[in-house]
Amino acid sequence: MPVRYPRSSAVRLIYSLCNGASSQFDAVFSGKLNPRYYSAGSAAAARLRDEKDVWWKESLQKLRNIGISAHIDSGKTTLTERILYYTGRIHEIHEVRGKDGVGAKMDSMDLEREKGITIQSAATYCNWKDYQVNIIDTPGHVDFTIEVERALRVLDGAILVLCSVGGVQSQSITVDRQMRRYEVPRVAFINKLDRMGADPWKVLNQARAKLRHHSAAVQIPIGLEDDFNGLVDLVNMKAYFFHGSSGEKVVTEDIPSNLEAVALEKRRELIEIVSEVDDKLAELFLSDEVITDSELEKAIRRATIGRKFVPVFMGSAFKNKGVQPLLDGVLSYLPCPVEVSNYALDQSKNEEKVTLSGSPAGPLVALAFKLEEGRFGQLTYLRIYEGIIKKGDFIVNVNTGKKVKVPRLVRMHSNEMEDIQQAHAGQIVAVFGVDCASGDTFTDGSVRYTMTSMSVPEPVMSLAISAVSKDSGGNFSKALNRFQKEDPTFRVGLDPESSQTIISGMGELHLDIYVERMRREYKVDATVGKPRVNFRETITQRAEFDYLHKKQSGGQGQYGRVIGYAEPLPPDSGTKFEFENMLIGQAIPSNFVPAIEKGFREAANSGSLIGHPVENIRIVLTDGAAHAVDSSELAFKLAAIYAFRQCYTAAKPVIMEPVMLVELKFPSEFQGTVTGDINKRKGMIVGNDQEGDDCVITSHVPLNNMFGYSTSLRSMTQ
Hints:
Layout: H1 9-18, H2 21-30, H3 41-61, E1 63-70, H4 76-86, H5 110-115, E2 122-128, E3 131-137, H6 145-154, E4 157-163, H7 170-181, E5 186-191, H8 200-210, E6 215-217, E7 219-222, E8 230-233, E9 238-243, E10 249-253, H9 260-277, H10 279-286, H11 293-305, E11 310-314, H12 323-333, E12 342-346, E13 352-356, E14 365-374, E15 377-386, E16 388-390, E17 394-397, E18 403-405, E19 408-413, E20 416-419, E21 422-424, E22 428-432, E23 441-443, E24 449-451, E25 461-467, H13 473-486, E26 491-494, E27 501-505, H14 508-522, E28 526-529, E29 536-539, E30 543-551, E31 558-568, E32 577-581, H15 593-604, E33 617-625, H16 633-648, E34 653-656, E35 659-667, H17 671-680, E36 684-691, E37 694-702, H18 709-716
Parallel strand pairs: 1-3, 1-4, 4-5, 5-11, 6-11, 32-33
Antiparallel strand pairs: 2-3, 7-8, 8-9, 9-10, 12-13, 12-24, 14-15, 14-23, 15-22, 16-21, 17-18, 17-23, 19-20, 19-22, 25-27, 25-28, 26-27, 29-34, 30-31, 31-33, 35-37, 36-37
Helix pairs in contact: 9-10, 9-11, 13-14, 15-16
Pfam families: EFG_C (PF00679), EFG_III (PF14492), EFG_IV (PF03764), GTP_EFTU (PF00009), GTP_EFTU_D2 (PF03144)
GO cellular component, one term: mitochondrion
Protein name: Tr-type G domain-containing protein
């Protein structure tokens, strides 16, 4: 039954505002309710419009989209587990390789729990101090680099986790490079301060040298290794201690007297470094005015969002210390969706760059950045950049032009889902039953915008794969198709020569995981091996042939004689096989000559040395003989095949192998090791250059010796 509103327009306005404000705003926003319906004089309408804007601005300012990225085993998943526990999303903590066998919340795959590594990036959300934080936990292995790539593409900020013992490692550099590519502001978190040999100041200096970070610590530890028991906040000049069974009680105290001098010195260093990139703070610093806590905090926020500064936090996620101040730092220093400028390309105006407002009032623009095959069909992760998406709405895939309905809209918490009715700009959600590819853009149909997609690295390793039993062919191809769709770095191809199925990916672990998933999820046992290298054969000197093929067995026989020679082609000739007819007169009728050429071509498809094709060969037919009755196309074709085999061994055949042009770029300190390894693989170095701190080597290496090279290069150069 419809609600009857009071007559007086002023009362009607108040009544409507009280009566479920948010649903009314939604209605006005989506255009389902006509704003004139509220017309209580233009002043009231304007006030309503302002309130509506404020309402959206406030909700967007209290939103953070962050990713957690780092080198292998720096503690990303453990940190996410603690964040979820302290924000009340989970009620007990489980370790990554815990004795209870449950495994961390974000590692939802059985394989992830067994191996203790993250394979797929997982999304979740939590609330901390009235702010909503969307978190994506990403893998650390370089093999799963696409997961990090697509997470950073859609996030507004990131936490770069560094190990206080290992320091800045190879994958930290890769992840940092990806953050720069997508212009993501970041804070650093030096983890594992409870471990033997922990040295946060060494790590901070490595970040400045290797990552070229303009960074400074915003906290200092109280004790290290086994004595690590708290932190000093350099912005508010307070000490934090973490009590309770899981460190959930944060106790704020005055700074211990033995650390006061160090804290003041480090705070001065922090102010100096920030004032180099922030003009407002620089003015206060140079005029020797007292810098308040809030002024310093605002300056750090401005510099971090402008990607000129990286604040460094400290703690130990495993020992439950330092996680809550890090969460406060995320709210204080990382941007909300409105503060990050995102661009789209307008397809109707020749890919002109358009800046997106990021407000829910605009037309819908959303990017599908990740696909997963779930129990209920394809699950598509969307980052909404502008506008509102509602369950049951029709949305348009700009890349294909298809119009699709949103049957189900969910928010993800690792592998659990929570159904929602609608989502607005700045949020990360998932939809079911929408068929699309990774990197597609969706709009409400009023605009034709596409978001620039992420950069996909080329595969570095290939394996030949085949199903063990013949019956599982259907599931085998189904699995390969699904994995290709989910992961742009996983490629499947067919080698036309060896007719092997070749899978390519980012490394051995990457391909092993997919073979294992195929066995578990599709019950297909597959064997993998080194792909067959396509060798070639050729001849080195001229050889004559004279072959008579004669067969008489009642009825029409077979008769054909071919005479001529085979010789190698000159090295600069464009063709790989040449056949020349130099017959004089009608020794062989001209209608049989094509059959002779066909015979020679067929014979050249497999040489007698190792059965690979023969190249750079010229066959010349000079003479022959035919029979008036018994000669046929088949007879001459067979005569040509046998003639080729007869002269092939006399022409001194050799095997040729494919040699690849290999370009390597690696840190200069490993030059000796890498060069020695190339020589060991029978490689020949043809060029050597210097690019900054990196050394660039160009060489020719036989393909047969290159199998698994990416893995050994990674281990040689860390």
